[in-house]
Every structure is written in structure tokens, then in C-alpha cells.
């Protein structure tokens, strides 16, 4: 049996099994994959928000259109390359102590995963910016959730920093074809 994927390990077997089929397929992918879909991006709310978005490699303009998502999934790490209509954003994710740790530009974010009625919710636990821990009073409010409808993974991501406003906000969907091989599945 192939090794479990990063998300299978971080979420745990029973919760992972309750995910909507499109989510389970996506987060069980192994190797290189290219998925397509649609996205709507909101611009950062302030000039400081734009500066923080730039430091993260996140979109800085409001756009709507096609998104291409390139995944390099290995058991030890996943590289996510999101090709928005006006910008490319890349991050590397690893599992550590039951959490998903994402390196995104100058930030390192640590998330706890939760399953709720087939949805995947990511709850921010820690943030380091340029290697410095973010104090609790300055920690962003993050919405990171995914739902599955048919063969589509719907996503919504938003980060709002106290005193700065919206830094990142995008939502949309990716098509996750049925029948693709996933990690941890019997052949």
C-alpha cells in the first residue's frame, strides 16, 4: 500500500473518510497533477494589505477568470502552484505533529484540520513572519475552507489582519477528475 498523503496523516483516518469525494481525491493525490477551474480574487483592502500580500506572493489585484493549480505531492511535502489570472502564488506544505505547516512567501503558517459535514476547515494556530512569531493580538483572522460538489473542489480563502484589513481573499473551484490514483489507496 502506498504511504498516506500529508492531509490523510494530518486529518486522521476517520475524519478523512468523511470528506466529500472530490476533497478526498484531491488531498489523496500523489505525484504531479495539473487541475483547472475558476477563481474570483478580491484586492487587499489597504496599501499595507497590498504590501503584506506582496510579501506572501499573494494576488494584489481584483480579478476573475481561469485558475490553473499545479500540485507536486510527495509523502513528505506538497508544492502548490496557483496560477491566478494576474499572478502566480506558490507554497510548500508539510505535516508536523498532526498539523499542516505552509511556507508562503515570508510566512510560515501552522493549521489544525477539521472535518465538518464533509467539508475541510483549516484553523490557523501559529504564524511566523520573516521567522518572527506573530503576537496573538496581531494574528490574522483566517478563513480557509473547502467543500466538494460532484467532481469540483470549492475553496474559499481569506486573511484579515487587525488594523490592516483584508490581505488575501479568493474563492472558486477546481475540477478533480474521478479515477485518478490517490495515496494510501489499494491498487
Task: Report what the structure shows.
- The protein is mainly beta.
- It has one domain: Calycin beta-barrel core domain (Lipocalin, Beta Barrel), CATH 2.40.128.
- 15% of the residues lie in helices and 51% in strands.
- The chain has helices spanning 6-11, 13-17, 21-27, 47-56, and strands spanning 31-41, 63-73, 78-83, 88-96, 99-104, 107-116, 119-129, 132-133, 141-149, 152-161, 165-175.
- A ten-stranded antiparallel β-barrel has the order 1-2-3-4-5-6-7-9-10-11.
- Strand 6 (107-116) and strand 7 (119-129) form a beta hairpin.
- The radius of gyration is 16 Å and the shape is globular.
What descriptors fit this protein?
single chain, 187 residues, mainly beta, Lipocalin, ten-stranded antiparallel β-barrel, 4 helices, globular
Give a quick precis of the structure.
The protein has helices spanning 6-11, 13-17, 21-27, 47-56; strands spanning 31-41, 63-73, 78-83, 88-96, 99-104, 107-116, 119-129, 132-133, 141-149, 152-161, 165-175. The protein is mainly beta and 187 residues long.
CATH class bucket:
Mainly Beta
Helix content: 10-25%
- Uncertain runs are none
Rough outline: globular
The number of distinct helices, counting runs of at least 4 residues, comes to 4
Name the beta content range. over 45%
**Structural class by sheet pairing and helices:** mainly beta
